[in-house]
Write a structure and sequence with these properties.
Layout: H1 29-32, E1 34-36, E2 48-54, H2 56-59, H3 79-86, E3 90-94, H4 102-109, E4 117-123, H5 126-129, H6 131-139, H7 144-176, E5 181-185, H8 205-229, E6 253-256
Parallel strand pairs: 2-3, 2-4, 4-5
Antiparallel strand pairs: 1-3, 5-6
């Protein structure tokens, strides 16, 4: 069944070639999902450590291939494995897991970083504010008032609750990877201008506008708290308005060193 919104797709997840499924070993998580770019540049001897943190937007849910971990829905088609494969001499700690919230960054994912981690991407916050509630009330029933009431609740969580949670997650990353360049990845808008395409699944224009507003508010909060985390340097946020019915790329990124 096609749902009303394609929450979890990212452009990078659609391009990678499949890799064989990995067994679930008992070694530490940072080692379980470590991969190395297959064609290292012979002129470059140093290896850079890259860690991908976050929720299902980072793990690859929506790619229809959980070949790296079924429990966390880690996919070889997610953007992190693709980035690692494209960069010579890059090792990947693929820590993102579907369903993750900001406390999972603090207690489970960030502790696997090390002082030698050079790059970190993190996509987090959607589950904290209630993406699941949006799915339940805006895609599984034809009830616009219920959907819009849920949107109001989610926007309130973004405004009143999410900021301190992101601060704690970003601080944990900095603690465990003090010299890494950290890129925070925003979430895509749910709809483009065409709500009659199959992926829209009958959303009303009012619902589409409201849900896009949630994504915009969430990305604004992520960019704001990223700038706060980068108070000693500069950070940037670059919006990318959707051009298709189901946009598949993050709408904003921010970074700090």
């Amino acid at each position: 069944m096609v749902t009303k919104i394609a929450l979890w797709s990212v452009a990078a997840t659609l391009l990678a070639t499949p890799t064989p499924a990995l067994a679930e070993p008992t070694t530490p998580i940072a080692e379980q999902y470590a991969t190395t770019a297959p064609e290292p540049n012979p002129t470059t001897t140093a290896t850079e450590a890259y860690a991908a943190l976050g929720d299902s937007a980072a793990s690859g849910n929506g790619t229809r291939r959980s070949d790296l971990s079924s429990s966390c829905y880690r996919s070889s088609r997610a953007y992190a494995p693709m980035i690692a494969a494209e960069r010579p001499n890059t090792t990947l700690a693929f820590l993102a897991c579907q369903g993750a919230e900001t406390p999972d960054i603090v207690t489970t994912q960030a502790p696997n970083l090390t002082p030698t981690t050079r790059w970190v991407t993190v996509s987090i916050g959607g589950n904290d504010i209630g993406f699941g509630d949006l799915i339940l009330n805006c895609t599984s029933r034809w009830d616009e008032p219920t959907c819009l009431a849920t949107v109001d609740q989610v926007n309130t969580r973004i405004r009143d609750e999410l900021g301190p949670k992101l601060d704690r997650a970003y601080a944990a990353i900095r603690t465990h990877a003090p010299t890494a360049t950290v890129l925070t990845i925003g979430y895509p808008r749910f709809y483009g201008p065409n709500t009659t395409c199959p992926d829209a699944d009958g959303a009303t224009p009012t619902e589409a506008t409201a849900l896009n507003g949630v994504a915009d508010n969430l990305d604004t909060k992520i960019a704001d708290r990223s700038r706060a985390a980068a108070s000693r340097t500069s950070a940037s946020s670059t919006p990318s308005p959707p051009t298709t019915c189901a946009p598949k790329s993050p709408t904003s990124t921010a970074k700090w060193n």
